[in-house]
Design goal:
alpha+beta
């Protein structure tokens, strides 16, 4: 089984939360450090709004980002202490999202997509196009050809 680095997974999952808390912290510093005026209130309002938008991104990303281990016969989605196993025939689609260098997985009978990182960094082939040359990429490409998902 090949799995991506957990540090990369947790960094991507909680990035927007950390950045939104930082925005709210800056808004609090602006409000309490400087004398109250329309200018300081407007600046604090901008930081609070930016933090709120980033927090919404965090809520969206939190539900869709998963740790996934890929093997020759199965895909294991790691959800905390639980490991949910799926066979390759249950995969409806599996694609690389080029800009963000992560996989987009759709399973038969499941709602929504699962996003996960490859085991190594993906090298861009031509500009925005990318190809996974790692061991995980080899397994995925072989299974996609066998199942006719390409």
């Amino acid at each position: 089984m090949v799995e991506a680095n957990p540090v990369k997974y947790y960094f991507a999952k909680y990035f927007f939360l950390g950045f939104s808390v930082l925005q709210w912290l800056v808004a609090g510093i602006v409000l309490f450090r400087y004398p109250f005026s329309a200018k300081t209130f407007f600046a604090a309002l901008i930081f609070v709004t930016a933090g709120s938008i980033l927090f919404l991104f965090f809520l969206i990303v939190m539900d869709k980002m998963r740790r996934v281990a890929v093997g020759k016969n199965k895909i294991v989605v790691i959800e905390g202490d639980r490991n949910v196993r799926f066979g390759w025939p249950e995969v409806k689609s599996l694609k690389i999202v080029p800009i963000f260098n992560l996989y987009k997985l759709k399973l038969k009978g499941k709602k929504g997509f699962i996003y996960f990182f490859p085991s190594e960094n993906i090298d861009p082939a031509f500009g925005l196009l990318s190809k996974d040359t790692s061991k995980m990429g080899d397994i995925v490409q072989k299974r996609k050809k066998q199942l006719g998902l390409e």
